[in-house]
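Action item from last meeting closed. Structure (56 res):
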């Protein structure tokens, strides 16, 4: 499953715009992935300006 390091997220929203599964939402200005919707396509990893999404 892909998770986002909330402490490093800048809240740019780039991952939300590119997520084909609509699995990412903003919570308190941080991106949060809904594990039930995520297909692990890793588009969020590719677009993240600080490369913070990571597999866990």
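Sequence:
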């Amino acid at each position: 499953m892909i998770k986002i390091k909330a402490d490093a997220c800048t809240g740019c929203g780039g991952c939300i715009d590119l997520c084909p599964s609509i699995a990412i939402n903003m919570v308190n200005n941080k991106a949060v992935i809904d594990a039930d919707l995520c297909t692990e396509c890793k588009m969020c990893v590719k677009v993240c300006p600080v490369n913070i999404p990571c597999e866990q």
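Note appended to the action item: The first strand starts at residue 2 and ends at 4.
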